Amino acid sequence: MEDFYLDKKLENEQIINTLSEVFADLTVFNYDFENDQPEKFKNGKTYLADDNDIDFLNKTGMIKILKEYDLPIFEFDKKRYL
Fold this sequence. Notes:
Elements: H1 12-22, E1 46-50, E2 64-69
Antiparallel strand pairs: 1-2
């Protein structure tokens, strides 16, 4: 998982289209962790990966899968009641 910070708001469709062009061999989708999972979502598993060897300009290199990773789900918009 990568974090990106921009100086303007982008619509999900813009992000999906751009990532689909850059990573043509991958399936790109929006998943908010609240609704049903999209089809083919790595069987609900996430992985910690190392992309340090990637040359993004030339689209070469390899991403190394390091280990299975339990992705924490943060519920920022939910109120806590004491």
